């Protein structure tokens, strides 16, 4: 909890919410915000039942929506499978995070957790800029006309491209796509992983 709250302190986007002002969305960054971790105990459950229940609870957490006007736009749960094995579930709205951010979040939580659990000082430098600074820079760049030049370049380059991207596959595509998918679960042994 201490590690996650430090990450929230470091990143304004994790303290952000959105309100409507005169029909337009407006970003509000909370000066301070902390989370209490929701902990659940599963160590007394049989392993198979544990896995089913954990999967069900994770799916439930992912499906639950967010009210964009209320920070934080993230939820965190710790599910204890045993004294040595826990599942950390972090669900964030895409409006405050993206794929690149997840790697940063994971790295920072790991560094802070390691330091906090060993009593050491974490070695993370303060951030010189926040995402809002980047957004201001990007808006200024768009206003400068530089954006229009780049947009024209890509529009010209991509003009005439087909609507569908045909990528070589291991078998031919059906005439009518079904959009059916599948999920395959498996475990890698400790030696391999």
Please explain how this structure is put together.
There is one protein chain. This protein is of the alpha+beta class and 193 residues long. It is built from 5 helices and 5 strands. The protein has helices at 2-10, 47-63, 99-118, 131-143, 146-158, and strands at residues 16-21, 24-29, 38-41, 74-80, 86-92. The strands form 2 sheets. It has a 3-stranded mixed beta sheet with strand order 3-4-5, covered by helices on one side. Helix 2 (47-63) links the parallel strand 3 (38-41) and strand 4. Helix 1 crosses helix 3 (99-118). It is extended and about 60 Å long. The two termini are 27 Å apart.
Secondary structure topology:
Elements: H1 2-10, E1 16-21, E2 24-29, E3 38-41, H2 47-63, E4 74-80, E5 86-92, H3 99-118, H4 131-143, H5 146-158
Parallel strand pairs: 3-4
Antiparallel strand pairs: 1-2, 4-5
Distance between the termini: 27 Å
What is the residue-mean pLDDT, rounded to a whole number? 90
Helix coverage percent of residues?
A: 25-40%
Broad structural category: alpha+beta
SSE order, as H and E? HEEEHEEHHH
Tell me about the largest β-sheet: 3 strands, mixed
Portion in strands: 15-25%
Task: Tell me how many strands there are.
Answer: 5
Unreliable spans: none
Mass-distribution shape: extended
Integer-rounded radius of gyration: 22 Å
List the total number of helices: 5
Q: Which strands sit side by side, in order, in the main sheet?
A: 3-4-5
